[in-house]
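subagent[fold] <- orchestrator: predict structure for attached chain, return tokens only, no commentary.
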Amino acid sequence: MFKNDSMGARADSDTAQSVPDRTRLMVRDLAESTHAVLQFVDLVHKLADASDLGQILDIVARSARKLHSADAATIILREGNEVVYAAQDAAQPLWPGKRMHAVECISGWVMDHTTAVSVFDVDTDIRIPAGRYHSTWVRSLAMVPIRSHPCLGAIGLYWSTPHHATQEQVRLLQALADASTIAIEKCRIKDEMEVLVQQRTQELESANRELRNDAMLRRQMEAKILHLSLTDELTSLNNRRGFLMRADQLFKLMHRVNTRAWLVYVDIDNLKKVNDKCGHEAGDRLIRGTAKVLRESFRDSDVIARIGGDEFVVFATGSSTPLAEIHARLDRNVMHFNSFNPDPPPLSLSVGTIRCEPRASQTLEELICLADAAMYIEKRAKREHPQTEITD
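subagent[fold] -> orchestrator:
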């Protein structure tokens, strides 16, 4: 009886001692679970704040290794028929940046089957190509897919000693992969949107350049058309329209600033006779010669124009040059032209000049008529005393 009592007492003592042990184990497991949950929550926050794919992959690799006390963690991404080891956190590097065909590694199998794996011995698992890990320190691994449609990639954990990943570890790793899927998808969408925005911006910039070029070309064409509409084709001087537009601006300015101007009317003597007797080529030579003489006799700021077949006009504002000097300059330049162009007929000009006063009431058109009349007075005088072989 005492013996039985003694045995019962020992059993009660063992039972009493096992309760605290079980409690400690439960507290430890609870603490570990709580720590894992806190780490996972911290991971989710970090992923939410991540701004680019590289940052996301680094966060996931570090967190996966830390949560599972693994020797290494890698992030493998799918690119068509290939996989690339995009990120890793490891005591000893595995394959950073390495690219290979999906069928050559376990990650391809995980992605194709969208299924997690836990491999105790990497040398004997039929899903791993023979000899894949012979040159590495890896003995065990666990890998889960980064699930999407299609599968984005996989997260792998590696141990240097034989290790059996529990279902809880695999589920935690899969939860981490699922959380990273959202972040990666968000990042990829952001990158795609940035690319689209950049492409659209480039398209708009290209369209704007084309519009600017078209507008510039249109302005150039309009300027060219305007220039042609205001320019005499043979001499490149102003034509009548160009003269009236530009001279009228100077005429108004003359009145505003209270200055004087000269209006000079020039006619080529005997041009019709030259055309009839020597041909239009000779007449054109005299017309171009007259334009040259006028350019050499007046300033760039003066308005010079050919307003008829043999008629030219000049409006020179702000000039204090005496009338006699203007005529002398014209005569010298005519003589200079004839000396360098000895072939007949020689160039001869009739000139009429009018002084434009700022307080005068005549219009520009009326002054042109007065200068024209003064020119014909000189022309009549030449007719009475002809000096050339060809006469009117």
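orchestrator: received. Logging for downstream: The first helix runs from residue 2 to 49. Residues 13-17, 388-392 have pLDDT under 50 and may be disordered.
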